[in-house]
Amino acid sequence: MSTWSAAAVDPIDRLAASVPGMVAGLAFLATAVATMFWQNLTIRWTQTKSPYHGAWAVSLAMFSLGAAMLAVGTATGWDRGVYRAYFLFGAILNVPWLAMGSIHLLASPKVAGRVQIGLLIFSGLAAGVLMSAPMVDVMPREVIPVGKDVFLVPLPRILAAIASSVGALVVFVGAAWSAVKLLRTQDRTPVVKGRVTVNMCIAAGTLILALGGIGNGHHPEWFALSLVAGIGVMFAGFRYAETVSQKPSTLTAAARKPATVNQSH
After folding, report:
1. Can you give the pTM of this predicted structure?
2. How many domains, the chain?
3. When you count CB atoms within 10 A of the terminal residue's CB, does the N or C end of the chain come out lower?
4. Distances (CA, A) of 20 to 15, 70, 77, 97
């Protein structure tokens, strides 16, 4: 009887014991992909000085830090400093800076500049709140602790809810708007198509991250998998867009071709 019970429960226990290692491994993988994405964006920004590349690079740097803190926390145990950094970069700031790139891409420079000033102020406020927010004396033993079980005041969670919801909404609206503009315009050069592609992939990746975050408390392994999938979709879209934008447009080549004059009379 006891042998049968132990054999029945043992696979479940082994699966539960493997979850932290699975989450840590996926988080390290997400960190690696995000770091490569950040490197590509940083190189691109140094070449073009495009503000949307710069905003996306900031977002991916934050994503990398948040994923790295998740990997460290699940692999070695959570402490206050690691969790503060994970929550600040992973739960609050990275999505708004991702949305800032969409705003730079679609709005006028004047409007985008004002929004970025506001985002800088918000980022400083969020950092101050996370540094000073009181926390429990003993960190919860969950694989990924939930904010309500860690912070003794609701403000960090309020900031995370506002930042993630507003940021995701801006990304989704920006992707839809860029697609509509592409359908309505005759200017379908590779550069324009590339921008629309990367915007759509960023929206798709953000949706994957949002869906993964819903089950964070109960299924941390799915949340960690969503980090890899979401950032992978974004990176793949960016690389595809970069490849497409470097191909010469047929229309552009035709326009540059010197016109021939029929001199036969």
Report:
1. 0.80
2. 1
3. C
4. 10, 10, 10, 29
Structural domain contains residue 6: no
Quote the strand ranges of 52-152, DSSP E: none
- Give pLDDT tens digits for 20-76: 889 899 999 999 999 999 999 999 999 989 999 999 999 999 999 999 999 999 999
* Predicted pLDDT of residue 258: 46
Q: State which amino acid sits at residue 206.
A: T
Q: Which pLDDT band, with edges at 50, 70 and 90, does 247 fall under?
A: low
Q: How far apart are CA 37 and CA 152, in angstroms?
A: 35
Q: Which amino acid is at 68?
A: A
Cα 190 to Cα 85, 148, 234, 257: the distances in Å are 39, 46, 18, 18
- For all residues of the chain together, what is the average pLDDT? 82
Dihedral sign (CA 213, 215, 217, 222):
negative
Domain that holds residue 170: 13-247
What's the rounded Cα separation, in Å, for the pair 140 and 150? Answer: 7
List the CATH number of the domain containing 22.
1.20.1070.10
Q: Is residue 255 part of a domain?
A: no
Is residue 213 a contact partner of residue 223, using CB atoms and an 8 Å limit? yes
Pick from 100, 142, 122, 98: nearest CA to 230: 98
